[in-house]
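Researcher: Can you fold this with PBG in place?
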Amino acid sequence: MYFPVYRPRRLRKNETLRRMVRETKLSPDDFVYPLFVMHGRNARKEIGSMPGIAQLSVDLAVKEAKEAFDLGIPAVILFGIPKKKDPRGSEGYARSGIIQQAIRAIKDKLPDLVVITDVCLCEYTSHGHCGVIIKGQVDNDATLELLARMSLSHAKAGADMVAPSDMMDGRVRAIREILDRNGSEDIPIMAYAAKHASGFYGPFREAAESTPQFGDRKSYQMDPANAREALREVRLDVQEGADIIMVKPALPYLDIIRAVREEFDLPVGAYNVSGEYSMIKAAAQRGWIEEERVMMEVLIGIKRAGADIILTYFAKDAARLLNSKR
Ligand code: PBG
């Protein structure tokens, strides 16, 4: 079938026709909205490198979560900024920790919103690494116990799902076991399964105040060059009991999202990370690109690559736009 018999432009003639043959569609159902929660009351601290995103006290986080839910977004993912950091990240698994408070407050007001928690030590440790340091190294097995405790404390506070982002080996199994042993066998795990050591996390580290105080995360996060290893990482998490598998970041890793989609039948998540958000915001502020158009193109690209779930700071903006078009 080729020109002039076949003319692809016939089906592009107008928007109604284009709508009929559109292969991929976005919906607010696709999104998870990240929230940064801090101590205090009625307090909001803008993140300079992420216009429109702020650290929020619990009361304001509840409001923000309600706005997202009212726009049709089914879930939020919570990150916490503790009062005090220490070498073992103990506020991360304290009953009175900031995330535990936020979960209780949000679930109390919005029982039908899915509350996911990021499980990682980096926001809570004084050294900013995702695990405990023993002899100058991030110690894998000593970290597992703390991640498991953190997951259980989130579940006990009422979280609907936990999402480990630390990249320690064996953490999905450790978390599954502690949840199952303590009556939380129905809490799903969304594993940051293929998480790469990325420069695109830069703005997030301002938002979560989680910059490592020495070294970098390359001894636990993946090498950006590796796609086959990404499949091995995902396979491990599936074997250990992950319910949703996530690829992160999204844009430079669309090939990996596609490969994971084809290899596994679990729901696939993709994290459209802070740097991907900030680049678009910055270029749009300079008038160099059209923000809405580029935002939607990026999100459709992530979905087209194979993601079922997109974690994105654009969730509210994109949902608002999608809702206005129907
Ligand atoms: C915690 C964590 C990070 C992100 C999500 N969970 C930062 C990191 O690994 O340094 C990044 C999210 C983003 O950039 O939007 N480990």
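Model: Folded with PBG in place. The two ends are 35 Å apart (CA to CA).
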